[in-house]
Structures are given as C-alpha cells and as structure tokens.
Amino acid sequence: MCLETLEKKTTNWMSWSPHGRHFVLATLRSQSVFDIEFWDSDFEVTAERGESAKNDAAASIQLMNTQEHYGVTDIEWDPTGRFVISSSSMWRQGVNNEFHR
Please, which pLDDT band fits residue 33 given cuts at 50, 70 and 90? Predict the structure, then answer.
C-alpha cells in the first residue's frame, strides 16, 4: 500500500530506524546532490492540520529536517535508533583526485 509519493526527488537510498517510526532518505555517491532527509512516519496529526488530515494515513508522515553532506557515500543508524552517522569514503567515491601540471 502506497501512503505517499514524493515528487522531484533524486533519492537513491532509504533506511528505517532500528525501532521503526523514523527513516532517512539520501542521495549517496552523487557529484551534484548530497541531501539527507530525516522523516517521521508517526507524526501526531494536530487540529491545525484539519479533521480530514486525521483520517489520512499519509498525513502522519512528516519531514523533520534536511542536511547536506558533500560526497556522502554511507549512512548508518546506531543500534538504539537515536543517532545517524554519515560518512564519505575514498574507497567508494568516484572522484578523480589526480593532480596534473
């Protein structure tokens, strides 16, 4: 069952927190896009979002934050699901770091 479709995203990686609820969307190993998005899939629907939103399952999906990490190649959750680490590995990065005179 599809709850929500995110348009115009270049995301090529997704990972759920070990405890469910939160997930991360990212674009890994890209030379032009390096966004990391943090999402909450069980966001409390409040009255300000309207009564129709309370009956919509997709209304509980909320973007919490967006960060950038240039050259990101890996993202991992810690076992508690409270922290996320992003790293850039020279072994996985396709960047040519040569020097020419």
Answer: confident
For residue 90, being part of any structural domain is answered with no
Within 10 Å of residue 89's Cβ, how many Cβ atoms?
Answer: 11
* Assigned domain for 86 exists: no
* Phi-psi category of residue 64: left, alpha or beta, with phi > 0 → left and psi -120 to 50 → alpha: alpha
pLDDT higher at 44 or 23: 23
- Is the confidence at residue 14, as pLDDT, over 70? yes
Which tops the pLDDT comparison, 24 or 3? 24
How far is residue 76's CA from residue 79's CA, in Å, rounded to a whole number? 9
d(CA 78, CA 73): 17
pTM here is 0.71
Q: Which domain holds residue 47?
A: 13-74
Coil/strand/helix, residue 82: coil
- Please measure the distance between the N-terminal and C-terminal CA atoms of the chain and give it in whole angstroms: 56
